[in-house]
Amino acid sequence: MASGGVFAYRLPLMRPTRTESSQAPLAKQIEEIVMSAPVTDIHTHLYDPAFKELLLWGVDDLLVYHYLVSESFRYLDLPYDRFWSLSKTAQADLIWDALFLQHSPVSEACRGVLTTLHALGLDVKKRDLPALRRWFASQTVDKHITRCMELAGLRKIFMTNSPFDDLERPVWEKGFRRDDRFATALRIDPLLVSWPETAPKLARWGYKVEAGVPPRQTFDEVRRFLADWTKRIGARYVMVSLPAGFEFPTRSITTQLIEQAVLPHCREYGLPFALMLGVKRATNPQLQLAGDGVGLSNLNVLQNLCAGYPDNKFLTTVLARENQHELCVLTRKFRNLHPFGCWWFTNVPCLIDEITRLRLELLGLSFTPQHSDARVLDQIVYKWQHSRRLIAQALVDKYADLAQTGWQVSRAEIERDVNDLFGGAFDRFCRS
Length: 432
Ligand code: FIX
Ligand code: ZN
Fold this sequence. Notes:
Elements: H1 20-36, E1 39-41, H2 59-63, H3 66-72, H4 80-85, H5 88-101, H6 108-119, H7 129-137, H8 141-152, E2 154-158, H9 169-174, E3 182-183, E4 186-187, H10 189-193, H11 195-204, H12 216-233, E5 238-243, H13 253-269, E6 273-280, E7 293-294, H14 300-308, E8 314-318, H15 324-333, E9 337-339, H16 349-363, H17 379-403, H18 411-431
Parallel strand pairs: 1-2, 2-3, 4-5, 5-6, 6-8, 8-9
Antiparallel strand pairs: 6-7
Helix pairs in contact: 1-17, 1-18, 3-5, 6-17, 8-17, 12-13, 15-16, 16-17
The structure holds D-fructuronic acid and zinc ion (ZN).
């Protein structure tokens, strides 16, 4: 991908021996490496093209992204119901008008649409939505996947694969030829957060589970369910998003399911259990998918899991800014914990910058700084372009600090380090 041109790097406050010009080549080299290194995007909501319309792409899907829906309601005054009754095109028209024409699109999610369109070679300053639609209508999905992955510099995209999704499940059951650019992660939220509704589904699918006070057999059957789906989709990790306020261990069914089914399953198959902590689902239900919020998590949960289950591996991202420091400190204590990504409301430049520097300073290179969480294919372009710049900037400063001690890094060492951040450390953690 393109190197992104010159970008300013910060000089260290103290520079007794080096001058700006003597550091510039190192900064440029780091920038080049970070901007072009291939990345594994370890969490997205994108799909293998075999899932057809489940893979979202194009300008209308970019505009109706739930991040933009919630921002547009800062300005729109029509009733929520009326908005949801409109077609996707009509919703996109409203959002375009409110967020791009009536106000300047300075938010990160708005800027992202423009970064993406610009990178695709489209002229954003014309503000011509019908012309943008015509351009997308002339693209084919396969070529578009290749183009977006090239522009984002991705080598692999992890999907979020839920057997509980009524649109997704039949595609797996029928079978299809896999596109090897897409890897799988088994998503199990309903199993852990709404067992009373989920148990009857498992029973309908042939697993002998009981919803009430479950006997031993129920947990064995949940393990059989997890094993069937892990094998069917070739899952590389098991994943759940848990609400702010989640506690572990308790006497709840969720604790029992984690202890007696999920963790033994992950150990048996050597899979990490990925925890996304801190969402407040349906803070404003009228906003639908755009209505979720953030809350503080009790990270004793993570300590209890990591300490109590040393043979399990935990990938973790936390949604609250206030939880980021504690997550780093916990990671220093537990080798079976691997932090990843700047998730959702933390995926804004000022927080990516802060969180990435915090992690580098406390953890070195043993974490995965970013995932895209893209829901629309084209979003990988901006999410990675924006994050790469911030990661490059942080690394420039870190290597410059080292240079002040007389420590010099070779190009090969920088490439090794960046490769770790962009998927190498994740792969090692998954294999360990
Ligand atoms: O739970 C998740 O995986 C979240 O990332 C999503 O549900 C959320 O809606 C999102 O798109 C955040 O970026
Ligand atoms: Zn997600």
